[in-house]
Amino acid sequence: MTLQQPRPAVEPQPGAEPLADPVPLMGCPYKSNPYPLYERMREAGPVHRVLFPSGVQAWLVTGYEAAHAALNDDRLGKNHDRGNDRWRARASIMPEPQHSQLQAHLLHQDPPEHTRMRRFVTDAFTPRRVESLRPRFQELADTLIDALPETGPADLVAGFAAHFPFQVLAEVIGLPQELAARFDRDWGKVVQPVGPTDPGRPLYEARLHGLQSYIADVVTHKRAHGDDDLLGRLVVARDGGELSPEELDSMIFQLLVAGQEPVTNQITTSLIALFRHPDQLARLREAPQLLPRAVEELLRHDSAFELTTWRFFNRDSDLHGTEVPAGDSVIVSLCAANRDPRRFPDPDALDLDRTPNPHLAFGHAIHFCPGAALARAELQVALGALLTRLPGLHLAIKDEDIQWIPAVLGRGTNHLPAGYDRRL
Fold first, then answer.
1. Under 8 Å between Cβ of 333 and 360
2. What is the residue range of 87's domain?
3. CA end-to-end span of the chain, whole Å?
């Protein structure tokens, strides 16, 4: 079998349909609940060819051990220059010059560039600094809850989850209030693939230009005011020659998009998991000291980062027994790894007492999320505030009516109608 030939269909379990090759990762049933498919893929083997809605094919790593190994595999690089022509034809959907100007961030860098760039952001997200800001996070959460209707129902995305992470992020990175008020959440959708022939392409490009202009305004403001905060220090590093203009813009792009949208989505996936397990919701409300451990389990149970971004071999390589051509994209399924029964007993259960809980929701190794401590604190504050101040909190629509976002890499919903008895 050559590298270019399709692999034979995996032998099915008795009574099961054979897995397609490639396995399509698309459609409402898949986005609503990908876990049955991930279970079949884990059982069939650690690596599968998959097909995304954009038409791009990739190699998906499932299973905890295989995922952990891939995240640590220094043969796999993140820089898009490693991608081959087949990948580039469909996956590099952000047009030039924006691709070059906004994609030079940490998620797409390898050492030594990654090491050099990462050191500029780590101090802003240390656990000690995050803890010092927790009272402010609580104020922000309470203010948003104060604005909710006195009795339910209310959309907890529109009324809370869409705003809280960005307000927190603005505090942490030094985004001034006047600029924060101008940010359009729809700009974050530029990370969702829209191909060149898609009818939605003009709107996609308009959002892209809007975000790029906004980033330019942020840089201009910080350069004029000389603020000693993360954004200000990044601008100083650019002006001192330690970052290129493309690296500066890309890092701000990553902060604004990756720094808030995944937390918005994780709030929704966490609430949905609790709504589906009302006994656990009631227990958490009665025992808020469980929140730190509960957040870890909610991250494991249904992570907002479903899949990692691309990785590439620079030569034809073996990946857990599968030959992967150079420049083909390799993606790790964090959600599939976090439900692996070989690592997590009864993995589909929501167990707030689960310990240890070495989930991979924030990735692993050199690309471990630098904002993990911040995300954990945000989730603890958000869930604690909502459960404490909205007694009787429950899902106000049928579970099957939840509309999951069609994002390729993430999980979440843009609307979460919830009922509650009153607002405390």
1. no
2. 23-419
3. 65
Secondary structure (DSSP) of 392-420: T-EESS-GGG--B---SSB--BS--EEE-
Residue 12 lies in a domain: no
* Tokens (6 digits) for 90: 């469909």
Q: What CATH code is carried by the domain that includes residue 64?
A: 1.10.630.10
DSSP letter string, 85-127: HHHHHHH--SPTTHHHHHS-SGGG--TTHHHHHHTTTGGGG-H
pTM, two decimals, is 0.93
Q: What are phi and psi of 148, to 5 degrees?
A: -75, 160
Q: Would you say residue 382 lies in a domain?
A: yes
From the list 8, 125, 4, 68, the residue with the least C-alpha distance to 361 is 68
| Total structural domains within the chain | 1
- What is the Cα 47 distance to its own chain's centre? 21
Residue 18 lies in a domain: no
Contact 68, 337 (CB under 8 A): yes
Q: Nearest 10 degrees: CA dihedral of 37, 43, 48, 53?
A: 0
Q: Locate the DSSP E strands across 236-371.
A: 311-313, 317-319, 322-324, 329-332
**Residue 13 belongs to a domain:** no
d(CA 48, CA 35): 15
pLDDT tens, the chain, 424 aa long: 233 333 333 444 555 678 999 999 998 899 999 999 999 999 999 999 999 987 889 999 999 999 999 999 999 999 989 999 888 887 766 777 887 788 889 989 999 999 999 999 999 999 999 999 999 999 999 999 999 999 999 999 999 999 999 999 999 999 999 999 999 988 988 887 777 778 888 998 899 999 999 999 999 999 999 889 999 999 999 999 999 999 999 999 999 988 889 999 999 999 999 999 999 999 999 999 999 999 999 999 999 999 999 999 999 999 999 999 999 999 999 999 999 999 999 999 999 999 999 999 999 999 999 999 999 999 999 999 999 999 999 999 999 999 999 888 889 999 999 999 999 9
